[in-house]
Amino acid sequence: MNNRLRVLRAERKMSQAVLAELLDVSRQTVNAIELGKHDPSLLLAFKVSQVFGLPVEQIFDPGLHGEAKQAAE
Amino acid sequence: MNNRLRVLRAERKMSQAVLAELLDVSRQTVNAIELGKHDPSLLLAFKVSQVFGLPVEQIFDPGLHGEAKQAAE
DNA sequence: ACATTATGTCAATAATACTTGTCAAAACGC
DNA sequence: GCGTTTTGACAAGTATTATTGACATAATGT
C-alpha cells in the first residue's frame, strides 16, 4: 500500500511526532505506516484523511491497477 | 464505523457469499463488517470500493469528526 | 563541539481482522 | 409443507496491526 504521508507532512512542515499526536497514535506507528511497514486501520486512514483535508483515495493507493497512477493534483 | 454495504448489496441483488467471493474473503467476514462487528482493513475497504464503483468515503462513514461513533442504533 | 530535534529500528505485548467450522432461524421458491 | 438459499451467530485459531519503551543515527541550531 503506497501512501503520500511523507509528502503531505513535508508540505506542512509537520514532524512524525506532531502528526502522531493529531492522529492519537504513537510516533512509531506513523513512522511504520509512512515506511510501508504495515497499513493503517480504516479508521486511522480516515483520521489521516481528516488531518490533511484530502479524501482517502488521494493519500493511500492500494496499487490494485498497477499502472494507473494519480495524475490529479 | 457505519457502512452502506447492505444497501449497495441489495441494489445489486448480491448475496453476502457472492460479495465475499468478489472480495476474496469469507462470508463471515462480510457479514461481520456489514453488521458493524468490526471494520475492514484499509485494503479490503479499497476492494469494496472497487466492487461497487464508489469511493471509500461513500461506502464507509467513520463519523467524520471522531465525535459520534455510532449514534444511529 | 554540543544540545536538540527528527527519524529509523528492534523487541515484546495487546488488540483486532480474518479464518474455518458449525449451527439455527428467516426468507424464498416449488 | 418441504427444500434451498440466505443470513446471524458462536467458538477457536491464525495473521496482521497498534502499542510502549528503548536505542542508534542523522540533521539542525547555537
TrEMBL record, chains A, B:
Q: Does the keyword DNA-binding apply?
A: yes
Q: Does the keyword DNA-binding apply?
A: yes
Q: Which SMART domains match?
A: HTH_XRE
Q: Name the keywords, alphabetized.
A: DNA-binding
Pfam annotation, one family: HTH_3
Alphabetized PROSITE patterns for the sequence: HTH_CROC1
HTH cro/C1-type domain span: 5-59
* SUPFAM superfamilies named in the record: lambda repressor-like DNA-binding domains
| Molecular-function GO terms, alphabetical | DNA binding
Write down what this protein is called: Transcriptional regulator
